[in-house]
Amino acid sequence: MATETHSAADAAAAGPGMPQLDFSTWGNQIFWLVLALIATYLILSRVALPRIGAVLAERQGTITNDIAAAEDLKAKAIEAEAAYDKALLDARAEAQRIVAAAKAEIQADLDVAISKADAEIAAKAAESAKAISEIRASALENVKVVAKDTTKEIVAAMGGKADAKTVTAAVTARMKG
Amino acid sequence: MATETHGAEEGGLVFHPMDQFKIEPAFGDGAIGMFTVTNATVWMALAVVATFALLVLGSSKRAMIPSRMQSVAELAYGFVYKMVEDICGKEGVKYFPYIMTLFMFIVCANFLGLIPTSFTPTSHFAVTVVLALAVFLTVTILGFVKNGAAFLGLFWVASAPLPLRPVLAIIELISYFVRPVSHSIRLAGNVMAGHAVIKVFAGFAAITVISPVSVVAITAMYGLEVLVSFIQAYVFTILTCVYLKDALHPSH
Amino acid sequence: MEGELAHIGAGLAAIGSGAAAIGVGNVAGNYLAGALRNPSAAASQTATLFIGIAFAEALGIFSFLVALLLMFAV
């Protein structure tokens, strides 16, 4: 193999071949690699990993707490909503009650006013009826007087002598008929 | 020999797809000894720095509402944590830092390697073999420590007909020992292949007529490489989890 | 001569990458078919999908590696 004949100086002088198989450098590489790995291991296991693990755990805890708090707040919000709904329902019922009461009151007022108006109307009607009957009676009386007078006149004109009493009796008898 | 033909073919078109993987001293020249600071060292260190910046500096505020950096850090944490928990179960969570180390190192090294002119440590077998062997040894030792001889039940498929079991045992044994090989070569091979292909397309750009095609091809390959960088880190990690699960619960 | 043969071998080994592509396509296609039949179960199987793709692709990477070795290391 060509590599076996390569010294380190040959490899440095742009010689061909695979530098990977130049075993003269292996000791050097392995030494530094082991050093690098130990350094990395110490850095990671002593400092970096515990710290990152702690940060992650802490964040997990915070997130869990926050989620619990959020659940709490959500429950409270639901409670508040229920209370609000209840208040709304109550208010609505109250409003309906008030409306009903007002309606009833108005109805009562209305009934009173109507009955009053009815009574007034009835009174007025009675009064009017009375006036009408009076008028009718007076009219009858007038007719009687006119009939007597007319009868007297007619009788006188026919040359008779009208006895007032007779005439009145006759007219009254006629008028009844 | 490749040496003779290299650089001389296709009338001046030169391809050096493997040059980008060369290991060189970061400061000055000279031979590479055991403790020389090389470009591989620099980029491995940068991967560590990137991991540090993302996971430590990113989370330094410990904010309840994360900033962008912190979100990414938490995303990476959750991603790997969930993977470990889903595959290995609750007992596997103990090994989470180990798996997170592998994941962060590979993913940072891969992504940093995508920066032009950078170096990708994970394209070297030296690196991936060590990573895979570490997983292999951990899993094997852990399996025996946790389950004792019962760990060998992994190779003795109790649900198969009796005559088949020895054959299956041999196959299982071979596949068990091939694990670190495929585990390491998959990562290094994928990363190396993508980088080498980009380099080959870049070599074609020397021809004026082809260069627009080359640029488009490099762009497309780069997009694919971004995907591959992540997926290979993911696959390496998830296979580690699967092997770990075998060690924790050896029964099939 | 040896070098030329190595190059030919590398080209032959690269065929394996295409075979791995068929394998990966098979895995992904069957996953998609299954996911469309039962979308609710799809999310839980993405990890399996990636493991399957990784295994299929690893073998292609092996052949790619053989090609690279023949090109540069033999």
Mean pLDDT of chain A comes to 85
How is the main sheet of chain A built? none
Structural class of chain C: mainly alpha
Which structural class fits the helix and strand makeup of chain A?
mainly alpha
Transmembrane segments (chain C): 6-28, 49-73
Pfam family, one (chain C): ATP-synt_C
Membrane topology (chain C): Multi-pass membrane protein
Keywords (chain C): ATP synthesis, Cell membrane, CF(0), Hydrogen ion transport, Ion transport, Lipid-binding, Membrane, Transmembrane, Transmembrane helix, Transport
Structure characterization notes:
By secondary structure, chain A is mainly α. Chain A has one domain (2-176). Chain A contains four helices and no strands. In chain A, helix 3 (26-157) packs antiparallel against helix 4 (164-176). Residues 1-15 of chain A have low confidence and may be disordered. Chain B is an all-alpha fold and 252 residues long. Chain B has one domain (21-248). Chain B starts with a helix and ends with a helix. Chain C is mainly α and 74 residues long. Chain C has three helices and no strands. Chain C has helices spanning 2-37, 39-42, 46-73. Chains in contact: A-B, A-C, B-C.
Features:
heterotrimer; A: 177 residues; mainly alpha; 87% helix; rod-shaped; disordered N terminus; B: 252 residues; 7 helices; globular
Provide a short characterization of the protein structure.
The complex is a heterotrimer of chains A (177), B (252) and C (74). Chain A has 177 residues and is an all-alpha fold.
Topology at a glance:
The complex is a heterotrimer of chains A (177), B (252) and C (74).
Chain A: H1 2-5, H2 8-12, H3 26-157, H4 164-176
Chain B: H1 2-5, H2 39-57, H3 68-88, H4 96-113, H5 125-147, H6 165-204, H7 211-248
Chain C: H1 2-37, H2 39-42, H3 46-73
Helix pairs in contact in C: 1-3
